[in-house]
Amino acid sequence: MKCGGVVTLKALIEHANHMTAPARPLLLLVDDDTAIVDTLTWAFAPDFEVLAAASRPAARALLQEAPRPFDAALIDLGLPPCPHQPDEGLALIGELLTAAPWLKIVVLSGQNAEASARHARARGAYDFQPKPTSPEQLRAILLRAAKLGWDERQRETATEHLLGDSPAMQQLRAQIAQLADVPFPLLIEGESGTGKELTARALHEAGARRNAPFVVLNCAAIAPNLIEATLFGHARGAFTGAANARSGFFEEAGEGTLFLDEIGELPLELQPKLLRVLESGDYQRIGETQTRQTAARILAATNRNLLNEVHAGRFRRDLFHRLSVLELVLPPLRELGNDRFVLLDHFLAELRNRTGLPAFCLSKDARQLWAAYGFPGNVRELRNIATRLLALRSGQIIERAVLAAELDLEEEEPGDPAAEPNPRGEMFPADFSLDEALRQTETRYIEAALQASHGSISGAARLLGINRTTLYGRLTALNIQYPHKQ
Question: What are the helix (H) ranges across 51-134?
Answer without folding.
Answer: 56-65, 87-99, 113-122
